[in-house]
Amino acid sequence: MPRIPTQVQEILDTLVAAPPLEGYLVVGALLFAIGAWGALIRRNAVVVFMCVELMINGVNLTLVAFADYLPNAGGLGVSYAVLVIAIAAAEIAVGLAIVLAVFRSRRTVNVDEVTSMRG
Amino acid sequence: MTVAFAFLAGMTLVSALGVVLSRSVVHSALFMSGSFLGVSGYFVMLNAPALAAFQVLIYVGAVTVVILFGIMFTQKPQVRRYRTIINRQFWAGLMVAAGVGAFLAYVLSAEDWGGAEAGNGPREVGAFGRDLLGVSQGSEIFTLLFEVASVLLLVAVVAAIVVSRRKIGEGVDRGVRE
User: Fold this and answer.
1) Domain count, chain A
2) Tell me, what's the pLDDT at A1?
3) Strand, coil or helix: what is B118?
4) Which of B7, B8, B32 to mutate to test the interface with A (most CBs of A within 10 A)?
5) In a 3-state reduction of DSSP, which class is residue A113?
6) Do residues A97 and B164 make contact, with C-beta atoms less than 8 angstroms apart?
7) Which of the residues A66, B66, B78, B127 has an alpha carbon 20 to 30 A from that of A106?
8) Which residue of chain A is at minimal alpha-carbon distance from B55?
9) Minimal C-alpha gap between A2 and chain B (Å)
10) Would the pLDDT of B29 be above 90?
C-alpha cells in the first residue's frame, strides 16, 4: 500500500470528520432568513405559506442539531421536532382552507389585494 | 461528512432561494420539496434517521401534494413578471432578512457551546419512540404533548373542512354558479 503524504492525510481527515455544531446552526439560520425574505416579498398567499414552511424547517434543523450535539439535551429535540412537524401540518391544512375560502369570494390569492380588515 | 454537509447545504439553500425567486408557483412548490429533502439529509447526518423518514413522508410527500392541490384550485393565468409576483418591498425585505440571518448566524456561532460533540441523539428508533411517548427518564412531559398534538390535529382537520366548504348558492367555483 503506498504511503499517503501528511498533508493529503490531513485533508482527508478534515473531509471525514463530523462538521461542527455551528455549521448546522448557520444553515438553519440562513434557511430561516430566506424563508422570512420570501414571506415578506411574495404576493401569492400559497408561496407565503411555502416560505413559512421553510422557516419552520430551519428551526427544526436547529433543534435536531442541538439534540445531537449537546449532551445535556438528552436527545429530546428530536421529539420536539416531531411535534413541530405535526403542528406545521395542521397549520398548512387550515391555512390552505382559508386561502381557498378567500379565493372563492374574491377571485384572488394576492395578499395585498385582500384588504377588508385594513384599519 | 464535510462533503455531504456542503452538498446538503447547497441543495437546501439554493432550493430555498428557488422558492422565493422562481416565477412559476408550481416551480416554487417543487423547489420547496427539494429543500425539505436537503433538511431530511441533515437529519440522517444528525443521528435521527426516524425523523428523516417522517420528514420525507410528511413534508416531501403530504405537504407538497396539499400545496400543489392548493395551487391547482387557486391559480389563474397572470403575467409572470417579477413586478406582478413580488411586492414593492424587494430590497427592504432583502435587507431585513439579511440582517436577521447575519445576526442569528453571528450569535449562534459566537456562542461557546462547550466542546459539543456529535452522537448524543437517539439513534435507535426504540429510544426515540420512548422519548416521544414520555416513557423514558426526563421526557415525561411528552405524554401530555403527544395527546395535545393529536387533539390539535383533529381540530385542524375539522376546521379545514368547515372553512373551505362551499355553501350552496354562495360564491362561484371555477366560473360555475349554482
Assistant:
1) 1
2) 63
3) coil
4) B32
5) coil
6) yes
7) B66
8) A85
9) 24
10) yes
